Amino acid sequence: MKRDTSISWQHRNPNTLDLNGLQVAIVGGTGGIGRSFAQDLARQGANVTVVGQTFKDQSIRNIRFMTADLSSMAEAKRVAAELPAETLDLVIMTTGIMAGPKRQVIAEGVERDLAISYLSRYVILKAIAHRLGVARAEPRMKPRVFVMGFPGSGQKANVEDLNSERGYGRMKAHMNTVAGNEALVLDAARRYPQIDVFGLNPGFVKTGIRENLFGTNRLLLSIIEGLTSFMTVKPEVYSERMVPLLVSPDLEGRSGAMFNNKAQAILPSPAIANVSMTGSIIAATETLLGKI
Ligand SMILES: NC(=O)c1ccc[n+]([C@@H]2O[C@H](COP(=O)([O-])OP(=O)(O)OC[C@H]3O[C@@H](n4cnc5c(N)ncnc54)[C@H](OP(=O)(O)O)[C@@H]3O)[C@@H](O)[C@H]2O)c1
Description:
Pfam families: adh_short. Keywords: Oxidoreductase. This protein is an alpha/beta fold. It has one domain (18-290): Rossmann fold (3-Layer(aba) Sandwich), CATH 3.40.50. The chain is 35% helix and 12% strand. The chain has 8 helices and 8 strands. It has an 8-stranded mixed β-sheet with strand order 3-2-1-4-5-6-7-8, sandwiched between helices. β4 (90-93), α3 and β5 form a beta-alpha-beta unit. The chain starts with 22 loop residues before the first strand and ends with a helix. It binds NADP nicotinamide-adenine-dinucleotide phosphate. NADP nicotinamide-adenine-dinucleotide phosphate (NAP) binds next to α1 and α3.
């Protein structure tokens, strides 16, 4: 992966940050990476709303839970309407699954991975972008949105078949979500100048994200997890590296930047950074949403 070193980023100790009063929403903050972010940010004083299905952090005073099944776009719209967008400083989007061996479709007719890992984020961001942070008393930075995916990896979307209706493969379907999230960042950076939007590529983090990949074949899953374990880090380790970046003043006005799992800036995928390709992915997304 090529690196853009133009952003001078100094690592800081996440435990010495003063995040008192910072208002954060983590869509996908109930598990894995999002949960570690929520715990670290809350520990440093931020007020965090986590959106997801299963809440496990009742014991942490400044984490509040909003339940939602984000395989439904109606639910995504409800979440967008109910989030306190006007007072938020930071939105982090980590909701995700991986497509399974057989195409799964949600009630609204969308392939399940695309719906949860990409489309729900698109729907939420589009609905809240203009309200984000507008009612904050003393803003310490422009409102920020971080979109987690696999940016910079060169993956392309099949814009003719974003919903995998004509042909299905689990990796092909998942790559539509990867490319979609990268396009979401690049498009939002141009479309919403009043906020800063960034992409995050976590590399390989030890979470349950791959559980659906092989269906009921748990043996294959554990073999793959075992073989790749040398490449994976714990979500707590990744979060500790990234939390200082999320609130760094260095990011001000750098909307559209993407970061790897060491909090270093990376270049976007050339195929997606091309304005017409970003536009094609967004157009295909709008067409799909128009059918729901
Ligand atoms: N882990 C990696 O190696 C890796 C690598 C590259 C990219 N990523 C990306 O990083 C992001 C976070 O992944 P992760 O590894 O932290 O995954 P994870 O541990 O499986 O967590 C996924 C999160 O998404 C939520 N979620 C899943 N289905 C949902 C639904 N139907 N409705 C609402 N929430 C739902 C989960 O909430 P509940 O548990 O409450 O359902 C959980 O909070 C994803 O976008 C993933 O693609 C991860």
